């Protein structure tokens, strides 16, 4: 690993908060069928921190992540990535922001089947017309154990290897923040552990900021902080989680819990 990569900070902005949701509300539908997916959520995500978002099914986890990542627009409230308020950005500006400043890891890997692992990793940079920082790319590929897999197509890789390629793709452009929507949802426990260790290392060794949605207390235990949602509200937060402490909070998570948005 090059000293270039170790301890590198990647975010060009000056604030310690990389992503911020302020009073974020998202409703679907109207009238009797209206659903409030997010109910005035305020949450900060600090640079160099790994956060897991948890909560019962339907509590708004994916909606929150999609709004934070500029994949979905909130009904009211705002989202900031660094110093940029996403509210009011044009589609073109939003596309450029997602491409240049955000990395994604999805449950379904989302690799292009006809491209090699290396071509998949550099695809977002190629589309953006940006040249890969070769030293950075080398350290990411080595750290993720993909050096001898770069010529393989996704169908020639295991699920865990495919997700490692997706992690490398997310890291390649040195984004300000990486979002993972159940990134281990399709993996066995061994491959899950590998991918989570990589996301952990991205924070510890590369200075990245990572936010994942997960249902798995063991996955959440890799994070520095767990934010719990229920009924579209932030209802709890846990620092330095263990699988046991997360499971315990999940059991106690009651939809009537008092929101503690001010803590987040
Ligand atoms: N496109 C949509 N149209 C209507 N309602 C939606 C839509 N997307 C989400 N919802 C509703 O918003 C609420 C929050 O959904 P969301 O997917 O964010 O929850 P979640 O916590 O991620 O759930 P899960 O753990 O099951 O994935 C749910 O009641 C859901 O039914």
UniProtKB/TrEMBL annotation:
This is Putative ABC transport system ATP-binding protein. PROSITE patterns: ABC_TRANSPORTER_2. CDD domains: ABC_MJ0796_LolCDE_FtsE. Keywords: ATP-binding, Nucleotide-binding, Transport. InterPro entries: AAA+_ATPase, ABC_transporter-like_ATP-bd, ABC_transpr_LolD-like, MacB-like_ATP-bd, P-loop_NTPase. It comes from Rhodococcus tukisamuensis. PANTHER family: ABC TRANSPORTER RELATED, IMPORT ATP-BINDING PROTEIN. One of its GO terms (cellular component) is membrane protein complex. It comes from the Bacteria. GO terms for molecular function: ATP binding; ATP hydrolysis activity; transmembrane transporter activity. Residues 19-256 form the ABC transporter domain. It holds the Pfam family ABC_tran.
